[in-house]
Known about the structure:
Blueprint: E1 3-5, H1 7-20, H2 33-40, H3 44-56, E2 60-63, E3 67-70, H4 85-91, E4 96-107, H5 113-119, E5 125-127, H6 134-138, E6 146-157, E7 160-170, H7 187-194, E8 199-208, H8 211-217, E9 224-234, E10 237-247
Parallel strand pairs: 1-5
Antiparallel strand pairs: 2-3, 4-6, 6-7, 7-10, 8-9, 9-10
Helix pairs in contact: 1-3, 2-3
Amino acid sequence: MTKTIPAYQRIKNAILDNIHSGKWQAGNAISTEMALAEEFGVSRMTVNRALKELSEERVLERRQGSGTFVAQQQFNHTFVEVRNIAEDLKSANRDYEAQVVSKRAITADMLDNELRRKFGINEGVVIDEGATSVNAIAQTDASDKAVLYEVKIIHFADGQPIQFEERWVDAKKVPKFIDQDFSVVNTSDYLIAKSPLESGSYTIRALAAPDEIAEFLQIAPQSPTLVLRRQTYSAGQVVTFVKMWHAGARYQFSGEL
């Protein structure tokens, strides 16, 4: 089935894409209501709704008599503490190394149901009123373009695999992600620098290691593992979803209250 995207939501998506791509940076003025109404072929009331919601989400700041600007505070700070395994191991005086197993671009037709649900990507999109802008028309070609980037990385401590990372990233929000050398650059550090994270959720489960995971972690198949699944948000949308598999006998989670 196809799903119609309301005009105000298309405008919100286009504004967020411009912010994440760097076209509009913190403190910059965005297009006027009139310009946006003309670009999308909709009423100013529809544009006003989109801007109002983004202002309430603290993505935009509306200044009477001056216009609408990209809000400063949401893009200058990290609101979610994301643990960095590289720093954790180095601080424990252990030798750290990362090995990239694979990285690839994923198009809409390659997505499974879990990834579609996590990132809110529909199998088909119908463009409604005023679908005349480049941003709106591009929605119909999603199956021909990368919608997500996927990387798989093994993290080593003192030469022994301790974590296997499977990560998916919104390709439009972080377009240069796939170009990075993740044997040198940490994925979490890069994402925080390019799209600061404002919220997130996670679960930790004990699971028996499937054959492929066991091979990467150099443990016996069906050995116990701790799996952290985390999704993080910026500007109200999922930026990345990650599964981190840890060899149960080599890793534990701890903290202070």
